[in-house]
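User: Structure tokens for this complex, please. No commentary.
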Amino acid sequence: NSTNDVKDEL
Amino acid sequence: MNIFRFLGDMTHLISILILLLKIYATKSCSGISLKTQELYALVFLARYLDLFTDFISVYNSVMKVVFIASSLAIVWCMRRHRVVRRSYDKELDTFRHYFLVAACLALALLVQEKFTFLEVLWAFSIYLEAVAILPQLVLLQRSGNVDNLTGQYVFFLGAYRAFYILNWIYRYFTETHFSRWISCVSGLVQTALYADFFYYYFISWKNNSKLQLPA
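Assistant:
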């Protein structure tokens, strides 16, 4: 899925 | 990961280390709002629920554990530590932060990316983090003089989200479908709340004088 779906930020 | 986000995370970590240093070195939490610390513990617990479900990177997982553990340790210290809790400004720290929790929860139920348990809690944590500093800023204004470590703590805490705004701008221009408008709007509100503090912090730094917030 696209990066903005994954909460990759703290 | 980009330099702005890394600097933001490091600034955030530094702010927590400064607070831990202040409490450990001075065995005092005067000038620190317990309510703000409780709100931050809630922010991290609500946001990092995916700690065990989504593995993103070692860095991401380690930082989440550090933020959750440190915020809970600070709340425990201010509530239970027999020496530290005596210096808590209970009569000054009277901001009704439960209203902030209720308002952010209501907003998260109305505005989130997807109406799922994790997304609602994530939006709740983003909104709550934006206003979590309010009890601390009110306490600083009431307590008048601000000790250096407390001033630096609030300064780094405000600076971290400013770096994140640069990170979102950078990601907006470098990634095709990057849309984090919930984080961006909340981050702008969060950083704006520090505006007057930054101003008085800069004045005190320029005049090399004690940080004084107008009552």
